[in-house]
Amino acid sequence: MPALAEPRVVPQRRGSSLLLTLGVPVSLLAVAFVAAATGGVVRDVVLDSPTGVFETLTGSMALAAGIFGYSAFIAARRRFDWRVRGWLLAYVLAMVYFAGEDLNWGQYYFGWTPPEFFLAHNNEQETNLHNMSSWFNQKPRAVVELWLFVACILVPLGARWPRRLLARLVPHWFWPDRRLVYVASLALLLKVPKTLETLGAIESEILYGVRTSELQEVLFAYAFLLYALLLKRRAAASVEGRVRLRHVGGAGSEQRLLSRA
Fold this sequence. Notes:
Blueprint: H1 14-38, H2 40-48, H3 53-76, H4 82-102, H5 107-110, H6 116-121, H7 138-154, H8 161-165, H9 181-189, H10 192-198, E1 206-207, E2 210-211, H11 212-248, H12 251-260
Antiparallel strand pairs: 1-2
């Protein structure tokens, strides 16, 4: 009996893909600038309130990324070695941390007073770690920015040295494709005002009345969400493809399947 054809992953339509990868992040930036220009209650509800639209949206997208990442972990846990499972679990924990820190672990939503430790050591007297040390704020942010530049821009555009350099540590399964290029580029462009401020070229990093670090965070969260959806899709494709590939018996075919997912 002839071998079954290699399973195919149906690609997204170009229009819907462009809307998700470019249209959504550009719209988020546009809403932020319009709210800042409008001022008053609109600005407060959208940008400035600790329970405002952007704060809530950032935390919610990070939490959703963690949920989708966990879904990928469940699908892949019986199929892949410890590296894949370990990276997926680390991703889920990172997203929970990101969401919790951004939402101050629910402090403003539930109205509690932070424990004495946070009142004494937190710069903003909030229930979070990122206002207490650069190890929980600037350094993780720098790691995210490096990931966006190398994994989400350079590699999808053709750079091969990162994958060769990290081949033993990072499975090929985890390298993003071009779906994250736009949002990663926009997030890194928002770093320019801060860099200019550091160099003394401008007096403040605030762009049109909006702190660029806050805009970066919502784009970080959206990039993480797109990435989690990509991982979930690859995990689902690998599980579905494995059943068929047992009849084909080709490990190389499975790798090609994942590269297209």
